[in-house]
Design brief:
about 130 residues; mainly alpha; 6 helices
């Protein structure tokens, strides 16, 4: 179970990074007005994305070392990245132009991250997190 947990924790960020290197299916045509709500949503999306990325980096290290604080940090990372994704898709129609492989990698990364968080709460692994501070 430890091997599966570590595999899920490592695969999730690798899949996210891998999806960013896949090209768009077609060019993205955008016209963003600089007044109104759209620039604010874009800035919030970037802010949540950066915060989620930093939290993700520290939580991956903590989860692999079975630190108690890493489980909660990983949940906050997931929340920040989910907010960033929702705000990004509100501002830009990325799903229309993203390659199917990139979408599949992002969905697989989310499933792996959630799976790792669920496994971290199960009794065999939860005891490892409780034993280490």
């Amino acid at each position: 179970m430890v091997g599966l947990f570590r595999g899920l924790v490592l695969f999730a960020p690798i899949a996210v990074v891998g999806s960013t290197f896949l090209p768009f299916e077609r060019p993205l045509q955008m016209n963003l007005p600089l007044d109104g709500v759209m620039p604010i949503l874009g800035l919030l999306s970037v802010l949540f994305g950066v915060v989620g990325g930093v939290l993700g980096l520290f939580s991956v290290i903590g989860l692999l070392r079975f630190r108690r604080w890493a489980r909660m940090l990983a949940v906050w990372c997931a929340i920040a990245l989910a907010l960033s994704s929702v705000l990004t898709l509100t501002v830009m129609p990325l799903l229309d132009v993203m390659a199917p492989g990139a979408i599949a990698l992002l969905v697989l990364a989310a499933i792996c991250w959630i799976g790792a968080l669920v496994l971290a709460r199960m009794p065999p692994l939860a005891a490892r997190f409780e034993a280490r501070r």
